[in-house]
Amino acid sequence: MDTGCLSSMNIAGAKQAGSFAGQLHTQRCFTSSSVQASLRNKGKGSRRGLRALQVVCQDFPRPPLENTVNYLEAGQLSSSFRSERPSKPLQVVIAGAGLAGLSTAKYLADAGHKPIVLEARDVLGGKLAAWKDEDGDWYETGLHIFFGAYPNVQNLFAELGISDRLQWKEHSMIFAMPNKPGEYSRFDFPETLPAPLNGVWAILKNNEMLTWPEKVKFAIGLLPAMLGGQAYVEAQDGLTVSEWMEKQGVPDRVNDEVFIAMSKALNFINPDELSMQCILIALNRFLQETHGSKMAFLDGNPPERLCMPIVNHIQSLGGEVRLNSRIQKIELNPDGTVKHFALTDGTQITGDAYVCAAPVDIFKLLVPQEWREISYFKRLDKLVGVPVINVHIWFDRKLKNTYDHLLFSRSSLLSVYADMSLACKEYYDPNRSMLELVFAPAEEWIGRSDAEIIEATMLELAKLFPDEIAADQSKAKILKYHVVKTPRSVYKTVPNCEPCRPMQRSPIEGFYLAGDYTKQKYLASMEGAVLSGKLCAQSIVQDSKMLSRRSQESLQSETPVASQL
Fold first, then answer.
1. Which of 286, 360, 431, 446 is buried deepest, with most CB atoms within 10 A?
2. Can you give 33-87 as a three-state secondary structure string?
3. Claim to verify: residue 94 and residue 222 sit in the same structural domain
4. What integer pLDDT is reported at residue 551 of this predicted model?
């Protein structure tokens, strides 16, 4: 995850993989080839590390997203960066090489400016970070799904020429049945019907999770959201999901059967904590866009398959991406503006503008004392990252009771999971399954040992795979595992957080924020991160004349001093 100096990863398995916090503090400025070499060397010489990607899964065609309103709107924002070139490029220093930071840099480079991205760790991606173990197998910070309702992400893939790296799955949502161990219930969206009819059809055709009276009451409860639009959605920020359901007269079983799984998948917390606004934003996207809820997996590890193409693009236009460049302090000028970013190795990085694209918990540690009482920064205190754990288990056999898709576990301890040996081309294995599972809510587990987490996970898997997995491993045996703990992930979307989310342009001239926690119309998600980066870049481009003038005035004020020395 994009956890910067708060990173306290405990990554272990049958063979200890060690901790990645704080290693390799030497600053390096990478060309695209050297970053690729750095990624490849994690597992160099292993059997799987040398294997090329192969097409081994039968995926579904890419949905026709290009003519949808949201896709076109996102594309127009992208093209606006290429419409006019600056007379003198700005040098913009960006802290964080997650999706938000890389997106900011990509669109600034498109606009003719020179971004310098500083990443604290030795891996790209932030919340998309992944590592290769000594066997050549990858393990990730999270289980990442790319929805059709992610127009800015889909545009980014198209702009980079890598849309074929998304493996689209059938248009379904598949839920485990806790009362029927080993069985699943499906919501299948027909391709022949437009939104919202395809979603209505999927709900009506499923008679295993909700009864007809429950469906009717659920639909009546949702009517104000469907009729009231965005204004209604935003007004529900003060209510938890559970409170909203009670107010709307929605049966408790809808919570048990649907909303618990949705809440944990969206924000890693339960409905009694999650703001209803979060659920309604997702439902609106899924119900209003024909292909909005259609899912795709990336065809391999995110650092190489998604982040590196962005880095290559940035560098091809004159920008830089530096790993192992951890910010220690934001140094200020006498007027309270940023003087430079001071790194832990003593380096000082200066620019015409500065962006912090680190997670909100990291940024709060870096906020200078002089800024702390400004309401823009003070409101950030309410935004706190939620803990999450990502578990990877390699078994000694191919599990049969699974799908080439994302699965909602409906377990009290697990959120969603997937058999990545089926769902992802690079991770494909015809003989053995690798389950990647999101362990959430994780607050009570984040401090426990990996062995305890694996033991609890196996108890849950025994319910999902009763014929194939037993908690004591008397059936399928664990070959190895990796546990990735993120103490602070996406911000916890509890009620009344929305007013605390900052705009990308701060009240400090020349200082900006990017990140999925900043103000944008999507959730704390990959789409939110990319959109925040575009909005941040847009603000800087809009301010470019002011920023150029400030830099020029600063140089002129320093000239007399320089001549006296």
1. 360
2. HHHHHHHHCCCCCCCHHHCCCCCCCCCECCCCCCCCHHHHHHHHHHHHCCCCCCC
3. no
4. 86
